[in-house]
Amino acid sequence: MEANRKDTKVTAIIAAYNEEKTIGPIIDILKAVPFLSQIVVVSDGSTDHTVDIAQSRGVEVVELLYNVGKGGALHQGLMNASSDVVLLLDADLIGLTPQHVIDLVEPVMAQEADVAIGIFEDGRFATDFAQKIAPFLSGQRVIRADILRNIPDIEISRYGVEVAINRYIRENKVRVKLVRLPGLTQVMKEEKLGLVKGLKERMKMYWDIIKNLYRGGNE
Questions:
Q1: Residue 212 to residues 134, 167, 169, 215: CA-CA distances in angstroms?
Q2: SS3 label, residue 141
Q3: Judging by beta carbons within 10 Å of its beta carbon (0-12, 13-18, 19+), is residue 172 exposed, middle or buried?
Q4: How far is CA 138 from CA 27, 40, 202, in A?
Q5: Which 8-state DSSP code applies to residue 173?
Q6: Which of 27, 73, 120, 202 is a plausible cystine mate for 44, CB 3.0–4.6 Å?
Q7: pTM of the model
Q8: Is 60 helix (H, G, I), strand (E, B) or coil?
Q9: DSSP class of residue 174?
Q10: What stretches of 14-156 show up as alpha helix (H) in DSSP?
Q11: φ, ψ for residue 103 (rounded to 5)?
Q12: How far apart, in whole angstroms, are the C-alpha atoms of residue 103 and residue 46?
């Protein structure tokens, strides 16, 4: 394992839209993980202090002038990635630890899997339950960069980016390992935006997921 860690470079990419409350602590945790060679934060048209906070941490920041959706933001981050392995994390995580990152990256670094998908456990009921129902929609992933670059439709997938990745994984028989992430959770849209706006954004997310599922079914 130590040899693999020395030989393999890992880039962390975080797509963030108005996540000034959580982006700083997430970056601080990532900077404590020694084998991460690059951290890229893509501000997806943020209008708060997300960019300022990320820049103050000394990481690479890609600032998009308008919101292109999660898939488009991750695509921009990938264009700036210089590593063999890519760590994808949501920007609204609560309770992230260096051990979570190590556990998630390890199967890919050890060549036991091509993709690792993190599953919340023992965090909060709402987020734990959502991932028990649909674990493959988790945004916490580690994936070989060459695989990620071959996946079509990421740039236009918006909230459906995980669906696009999953479709490629399934069709190409990519090796996947699920990794439990105890104590990790995230801020829900209704908490960030208020009940009405949060529900609207959640419906928008579900619609993007459905569109990407439909797109895959018609290829």
A1: 15, 9, 14, 5
A2: strand
A3: exposed
A4: 19, 19, 15
A5: T
A6: 73
A7: 0.81
A8: strand
A9: -
A10: 23-31, 50-56, 69-79, 98-109, 125-133, 145-150
A11: -65, -35
A12: 30
Q: Considering just the CA atoms, what is the radius of gyration of the chain in Å?
A: 16
Domain 2-187: give its CATH code: 3.90.550.10
Token pair 């104590």 is found at 183
**pLDDT tens figures, 17-38:** 999 999 999 999 999 998 899 9
Q: How far apart are CA 213 and CA 145, in angstroms?
A: 23
Instruction: Return d(Cα 216, Cα 168) in angstroms, integer.
Output: 9
Q: Say how far apart CA 171 and CA 63 lie, in whole Å.
A: 33
Residue with tokens 């708060």: 48
pLDDT tens profile 32-76 = 998 899 999 999 999 999 999 999 999 999 999 999 989 999 999
Average pLDDT over residues 120-127: 64
Dist CA 75 CA 79 (whole Å): 6
d(CA 78, CA 146): 10
Burial 152-166 (b: 16+ CB within 10 A, else e): ebbbbbbbbbbbbbb
The position carrying tokens 């934060």 is: 41
The amino acid occupying position 81 is A
How is 108-140 classified by DSSP, letter by letter?
HHTTS-SEEEEEEESS-HHHHHHHHH-GGG-S-
The residue assigned the tokens 């439909």 is 214
Q: CA-CA distance, 144 to 53, in Å (whole number)?
A: 28
For residues 166 and 203, what is the distance between their CA atoms, to the nearest angstrom? 21
